[in-house]
Amino acid sequence: MEKQSPIFSKLYDFILWLLQHTDGFPKNERFRLAARLENQAFALYEQLARSARSKQPAELLEQADQMLGMLRFYIRLCHDRQLITHDQYQYAAANLVEVGRLLGGWQKSILTRTSAPDEGA
């Protein structure tokens, strides 16, 4: 089995957790907030996958960072609307902080690679 990058593993685990919790949202919130939250999480995963396959991932990773910010916003909104407990909010927030840390490391490695002088020159 192929070893998966930590950011993909962490986000996959978060999405699994998220889907289990949004299933319990009231019906009106499943069509409103849960749908946005789930779609944003899937879109972030897809954006990271595109970035991993891109020859120039810097812009895609910047967009992924913006998507992560929106995901954090939706999680906070769920907490403030009492759709998730405080413990669930803390769990989700900690996972998203970790995804952000991994994303930042990836962005930094891209920046370092692109700003390093050519070794063949």
State the helicity in percent bands: over 70%
Order of helices and strands: HHHH
Rg (C-alpha, Å)? 16 Å
Distance between the termini: 39 Å
Q: What structural class is derived from the secondary structure elements?
A: mainly alpha
Mean pLDDT, rounded to whole units?
92
Uncertain runs are: none
Strand content: under 5%
Query: Which of globular, elongated, flat, extended, rod-shaped describes the shape?
Result: elongated
Helical run tally:
4
Largest sheet: none
* Total strand segments: 0
Explained architecture:
By secondary structure, the chain is mainly α. It has a domain at 27-110. 80% of the residues lie in helices and 0% in strands. The protein is built from four helices and no strands. Helix 3 (58-80) runs antiparallel to helix 4 (86-115). It is elongated. The N and C termini lie far apart (39 Å). 20% of the residues are buried.
Relevant terms:
121 residues; 80% helix; mainly alpha; elongated
Fold blueprint:
Blueprint: H1 6-22, H2 27-53, H3 58-80, H4 86-115
Helix pairs in contact: 1-2, 1-4, 2-3, 3-4
Summed up, what is this model?
This protein is an all-alpha fold and 121 residues long. It contains four helices and no strands. It has helices at 6-22, 27-53, 58-80, 86-115.
